[in-house]
């Protein structure tokens, strides 16, 4: 089986395509393992449309995907993964550079322009604006997957033990964000990786959407994740778009595990 390793803002993924849709949780755990596998935050399985699916129900999409976190859990959406997957689809001639694909959260759009990839997420939902934990005011939002967001005055301090508790209590990813001029700095503890990752697209989108809703930032900003690789976020008719670089690190033929 041929797989490609990608990095999108420091969030890393193993990607392959197949016509066979089945549960690949165990494979995700094996491939994503940092010591015994390739090592990644997630596994993306791209499911191209078969000839008899062209037209019919699937006429609106170019392909479907399944996304797995490194612990084998399936997630409805992954923002950075969607950008890496769009690039993979384009270079492997599975889609044109402007495409739509089906995720667990719904149909999303993507545009590939060299190594810059833009994704348009499903409309964000604010679930709760009044969560008070440890004297901090959190919002719970859904940008395809659930995210807790807190605005901090010191982004250098991320209490991972607290993030773990909140992750379990709300079954959500946990983000702290710092307002830096017109832009945001964000750190994310990711559900399913069970640690802080170098970046999380839907997390950055959730922080942006809270900041935009509270009118502390405009509708077109830069967001800096832990990796330092800038993402450009915007909101239009309540849909969040985000754009940034992706890198194909290597492709390799591996024994199917
Ligand atoms: N890294 C992703 C989010 C992946 C899913 C998340 N860990 C979850 O289980 O909710 C992103 O870039 O959005």
TrEMBL record:
Q: Any idea of its EC number?
A: 5.1.1.7
Q: What does this protein do?
A: Catalyzes the stereoinversion of LL-2,6-diaminopimelate (L,L-DAP) to meso-diaminopimelate (meso-DAP), a precursor of L-lysine and an essential component of the bacterial peptidoglycan.
What PROSITE patterns does the database record attribute to this sequence? Answer: DAP_EPIMERASE (PS01326)
> Which GO cellular component term is one of those annotated?
cytosol
Which Pfam families does the entry link to?
DAP_epimerase
Q: Which domain of life is it from?
A: Bacteria
- Among its keywords, does the record have Lipid biosynthesis? no
Per UniProt, the enzyme's principal EC class comes to: isomerase
What's this protein's name? Diaminopimelate epimerase
**Oligomeric state and partners?**
Homodimer.
Listed under catalytic activity are: (2S,6S)-2,6-diaminopimelate = meso-2,6-diaminopimelate
- InterPro entries recorded for this chain? DAP_epimerase_AS, DAP_epimerase_DapF
The record, for Gene3D superfamilies, names: Diaminopimelate Epimerase, Chain A, domain 1
